[in-house]
Automatic annotation (TrEMBL):
Enzyme class of the recorded protein, top EC level: transferase
NCBIfam families the UniProt entry points to: PRK11761.1
E.C. number: 2.5.1.47
Database matches in Pfam families: PALP
Tryptophan synthase beta chain-like PALP domain mapped to chain residues: 6-278
The entry's keywords: Pyridoxal phosphate, Transferase
GO biological process: cysteine biosynthetic process from serine
GO molecular function: cysteine synthase activity
Keyword Transferase assigned: yes
Zinc as UniProt keyword: no
SUPFAM superfamilies, alphabetized: Tryptophan synthase beta subunit-like PLP-dependent enzymes
Protein name: Cysteine synthase CysM
Cofactors, names only: pyridoxal 5'-phosphate
Amino acid sequence: MATLIDLIGNTPLAEIQKLNPNPKVKIFAKLEGNNPGGSVKDRASLNMIRSAVQRGEIKTGTKLIEATSGNTGIALAMIARLFDLEIELVMPSSSTRERTLTMEAFGAKVTLLENIETCRDYAEEKGATEGYYLLNQFANADNYMAHYKTTGPEIWQDTAGEITHFVSAMGTTGTIMGCSKYFKEKNAAIQIIGCQPTEESSIPGIRRWPEAYLPKIFDPSRVDRIMDIDEAEAVKMTRQLARVEGVFAGMSSGGACSAALKLAAEISSGVIVFIACDRGDRYLSSDLFG
């Protein structure tokens, strides 16, 4: 018998076959929507809360607060319940209604503000007051260490160590930082590719941060290449993933898949794994699949 926490991680790899332009390259999607909270953020959220509790930084009565664009908030709301903790989640007002309703279903307080930068400023200010604990996923080593301890080893095991390229969207950069740390220790030749939106694009889950808001956990030396993803390109690929490959995921996953397909067209052979961050059902109120 398993607890809900036991079900976080060990998500499957699904091969992308019909969209793959190169028969000598294998492309796999790591289906993070299979986590109980529906996204890759279950991993970091669990590690951030559990580690802080173990260190004694979070005690009974402590109120958690965090700024989020959505998936981290859902995961934190779920896991906070398991630890009997109150949490306030601060989100951009542009977030889909599904996200807000899901967080509130877990009992979280949701505050909506103008944009993610405003949300981060608000959370940091309130987190500095007595009785509150700011998780600060953007500067928290427990974020990327979750992926060093779980996501990276799972991919390594499931590809029998044959992975040659790892592709990930970059938001907080926790996933790419933790996986890069693990893969480079196993095989320094593995290429780490990060995805960011083009200057004019807006892609939920992928950010092009202003210098002042660049996540403190981000180390550019751990990323071999950054690929810019256009918003229209990410939307098109997200729809194709669902309609051609049967992978129902969000726009950041479409962006990562697009990067993986471009990469496959460039190389002679290899094994590419990209992160499919979440499920598509939390975007149904938007026009993503319209």
